[in-house]
Prior knowledge:
The structure holds two protein chains of two kinds.
Chain A lengths: L18 H6 L4 H6 L5 H11 L11 H5 L10 E6 L8 H8 L1 H15 L3 E6 L4 H16 L15 E6 L9 H8 L23 E5 H13 L1 H5 L9 E8 L5 E6 L4 H7 L9 E5 L8 E2 L9 H6 L8 E6 L4 H15 L5 H18 L7 H15 L3 H16 L1 H9 L33
Parallel strand pairs in A: 1-2, 1-4, 2-3, 5-9
Antiparallel strand pairs in A: 5-6, 7-8, 7-9
Helix pairs in contact in A: 3-6, 5-6, 6-9, 13-14, 13-16, 14-15, 15-16, 16-17
Chain B lengths: L12 E6 L2 E6 L4 H7 L23 E4 L6 E2 L10 E3 L3 H16 L15 H9 L17 E2 L4 E3 L9 H10 L5 E3 L6 E3 L12 H6 L5 E3 L12 E6 L8 E7 L2 E7 L12 H5 L14 E4 L2 E4 L2 H15 L5 E4 L6 H14 L4 E3 L30 E5 L3 H4 L1 H12 L3 E6 L11 E4 L5 H7 L1 H9 L4 E5 L1 H4 L4 H14 L3 E5 L6 H7 L19 H6 L2 E7 L3 H4 L1 H10 E8 L4 H4 L3 E4 L8 E4 L5 E4 L12 H11 L8 H6 L27 E7 L6 H4 L2 H4 L7 E3 L1 H6 L7 E6 L2 E9 L7 E6 L18 E6 L2
Parallel strand pairs in B: 1-5, 16-17, 16-23, 18-19, 18-21, 19-20, 21-22, 23-24, 24-25, 28-32, 29-31
Antiparallel strand pairs in B: 1-2, 3-4, 3-5, 6-7, 7-10, 8-9, 11-12, 12-13, 14-15, 14-25, 26-27, 28-33, 30-31, 30-33
Amino acid sequence: xxxxxxxxxxxxxxxxxxxxxxxxxxxxxxxxxxxxxxxxxxxxxxxxxxxxxxxxxxxxxxxxxxxxxxxxxxxxxxxxxxxxxxxxxxxxxxxxxxxxxxxxxxxxxxxxxxxxxxxxxxxxxxxxxxxxxxxxxxxxxxxxxxxxxxxxxxxxxxxxxxxxxxxxxxxxxxxxxxxxxxxxxxxxxxxxxxxxxxxxxxxxxxxxxxxxxxxxxxxxxxxxxxxxxxxxxxxxxxxxxxxxxxxxxxxxxxxxxxxxxxxxxxxxxxxxxxxxxxxxxxxxxxxxxxxxxxxxxxxxxxxxxxxxxxxxxxxxxxxxxxxxxxxxxxxxxxxxxxxxxxxxxxxxxxxxxxxxxxxxxxxxxxxxxxxxxxxxxxxxxxxxxxxxxxxxxxxxxxxxxxxxxxxxxxxxxxxxxxxxxxxxxxxxxxxxxxxxxxxxxxxxxx
Amino acid sequence: xxxxxxxxxxxxxxxxxxxxxxxxxxxxxxxxxxxxxxxxxxxxxxxxxxxxxxxxxxxxxxxxxxxxxxxxxxxxxxxxxxxxxxxxxxxxxxxxxxxxxxxxxxxxxxxxxxxxxxxxxxxxxxxxxxxxxxxxxxxxxxxxxxxxxxxxxxxxxxxxxxxxxxxxxxxxxxxxxxxxxxxxxxxxxxxxxxxxxxxxxxxxxxxxxxxxxxxxxxxxxxxxxxxxxxxxxxxxxxxxxxxxxxxxxxxxxxxxxxxxxxxxxxxxxxxxxxxxxxxxxxxxxxxxxxxxxxxxxxxxxxxxxxxxxxxxxxxxxxxxxxxxxxxxxxxxxxxxxxxxxxxxxxxxxxxxxxxxxxxxxxxxxxxxxxxxxxxxxxxxxxxxxxxxxxxxxxxxxxxxxxxxxxxxxxxxxxxxxxxxxxxxxxxxxxxxxxxxxxxxxxxxxxxxxxxxxxxxxxxxxxxxxxxxxxxxxxxxxxxxxxxxxxxxxxxxxxxxxxxxxxxxxxxxxxxxxxxxxxxxxxxxxxxxxxxxxxxxxxxxxxxxxxxxxxxxxxxxxxxxxxxxxxxxxxxxxxxxxxxxxxxxxxxxxxxxxxxxxxxxxxxxxxxxxxxxxxxxxxxxxxxxxxxxxxxxxxxxxxxxxxxxxxxxxxxxxxxxxxxxxxxxxxxxxxxxxxxxxxxxxxxxxxxxxxxxxxxxxxxxxxxxxxxxxxxxxxxxxxxxxxxxxxxxxxxxxxxxxxxxxxxxxxxxxxxxxxxxxxxxxxxxxxxxx
Lengths: 446, 769
């Protein structure tokens, strides 16, 4: 089956980043249709009726989120979450680098719907090119009168600010992102109050993903019914699936939600020659993996939830039969260890601890109780952490251990002393027994 | 960032069930605080009840019905019908897990850690911890210890990243002195610029640190908490008079700590309170009386010294040529005894404690200094004006209470001669040339009245920039007029030093007797005393030779005999005929009257101290030798037993011009007080002394450019025919036409330019070639 390209319709044209090309292909039609002609509430209603669910991972109904804003406040903000850092996720990058005006148009519509007069794009720090392209696109849109004072004579005014992040996965969490945007450390905030009540600078704020906002354009252009005609009942519309890993042609593929995984893999050219599918993470790394028996699972929110995993960002990380699952678990936990913001105890200490155990297992120093410890630490971490980061750090490791216990056991068996507890290495005295000097890593030396 | 609004109106209540007990609490109460009402046992680390809930350490987990995860009780708001279990298996297991997590990277070095014995992590591990660990890996290591300036020491390995210290800087002190660096398991505490910590309140972070990560360099490795004898007393190092605890071990002072006092300092202290005790143990402390023989001070016995003094006093009192200079470090009782000794035994009227402070004739000061509201009430203000007060330098702990009010939504505005460091936190800071106070207030009257109108509780705090002005009385008239329109407004005059309120009440003034009674016949004030001839000049707790070196040299020539009572061989002591050692505030008993007229009690720490009397005891002994019996008046002692002084502010008539009017082109001077100056006791505090910044005269860029002055350039400051060499600091927070002169430094005795310490006099500054 061929892709259904709606969001990705124009990404193959290198000149699409020019505003004139974009306009010639129909960009900014939706704002002509909506601004000043539909009341903001109507735009919200169309989006609600379309059943559009957030594309950033949680899958919350977008129109409903907009409806949480208090009615009587004057200042509201829209923040576009373009801090795409989930392992295996690269759809927002394609959208903003290849078709930035789609996002800007979507943001104008969303800002109009929620009555924001100043909106922000929090752009991932490493997306240097995207940042430049977005900035130029905004300047061009301003020159054409799509942004700024009194847009197209509608009486509605809006400015968009692009803000580069500083390189932290946690800044993708919406409250951490707001802290970062305000100039503080990117650490999650206490909820309640939720951002819709007190977000950026304590003002009501909506945070939406890039892909979510891009979807708003075609919804306003074609109507809610049109949007609902694709996808499943509870997962309407198309979705950009990102396939990475052991496939022939990794990349972004747009299909209606509910498309079976096998079809998406086919679009990605299938497995590498001579290899077969072993397992895959269906929604980025922060979910449980599925195995080859799920090859035909419909890729939508509800089916994956039923399979005890999540659609997340629809980033399919494909692993073939050559994959070492202990290596996978170790690498992923290393990612969470490095990206933990350090605010709450379980995530700060737990991710590090599991990495240390997995490292030991990999180095053939594993012992019998280690797997139990990993399991308990992961569960406790997910149960008690402050924000979803640690909640997402546990399932990829736990599911790998659940599905492939023999691979972990094999490493442990390689340790001849695996039935004895390892010696406890307490960091005292401070003297390194070999060099009789301070044992201090350079990294922390000041 | 997030501000949790607090209301004191108990509109609504909610009823919930905790551990099977029904409990009703005001709406907005957290589950943790509700659980404390029934004395449930829940450990905490990151939660500190003076700061908003944070929810980071996760140790206060409880189980709540209908919630699928364990909840942190410190962040969860109690709601109607909630069912909470603090001791369920799940909750207990969750807390055990968190403690295990906290301990995996915490060095278990309790035997060599200063926090041992008073460590929440130790206590909570004992009460709630798992007892064993499953952790076999390598612990996190840091080079240690890391000094963060001269008073604070950081052991990063012990830090559990509860962020109490960084949130203290953000929410309580407003200086964000400490910040979290790095992230994840590499998270560590440090300063934003990697240098020394810049704060006036950093001692508090040592107190609230729940582990031994932040320790005091002065106290480190000196004692175990269970070995310390603790006495509750009062800090007398500034007019706030905070309650503190004195910890002694084997007769030596080990440390000072704050003591909760809602009406004054809450649970906080400034760094002078935290570290300002080291002088007491300094090797330079005077141990015996000294008598000048052949031009040199020689050690002598008390008997000998007191006899010499008594003889001279006896001779001198026949013709009444005796004067007394007191100081604000004496207790109220000692001040009373001093003035009684001078007036009744020696028939001397010329007594004054105000040398080093503004000298305003007390019959014409417009209003007496002091506060209308208690310091605790500052937290409840909804609006305040700071008029000419550098609050963090002069009354540091009052700022902490005002900051708390600001956290709850209060607005603050500043008017004055130079921008205070807290200006970024205020609504507005207006700076103007000294002398333009009324003009500036009048120009902003609309804004001021507007802000007062909408405010439930307002206060005006006037400081020395406004009060030590020739037009003080007119400014006060203006403020009184505002008060008449706004009954919710309180007027607070923040001026003075240490126990000056007590000295005033005791009548240590030429024209005021005990209890604040004006006298008909007055003596000479402090400056006049220095200018006249005397047979005996009696100085207790003051150091004129540092403040006014040139004048005091002249004075020495005109005075037959000088007695000095002090802790150290000060420059004044060097010029004296007899020097008597005295007890410091941590070694004596008495009363301290703070700026809000609260009577705070001093109690001696359990210190081994031989052969040293307090100032008061010396006056009694001398009176005995002169055949008199010196005692406190019963009425006076009775008054000091009250919690607050009952005398009210006298509203008086205007005064005439005290300073020559300025020519517009000349610079106007204003004096500035520093919290960390080079007073005698500061000089003998090893740690604090390193926090002292070099004294520099400050002016803004355009004024400096007009005079061709560069930053850090040497220059001469001239006024009233006196010239002092100094260094220039260009500071654009200073108003146009203004020169800021620092007080409290021996090397730059700017008091000489205007000994009565009035602001607004004309001053010249010329660069040194």
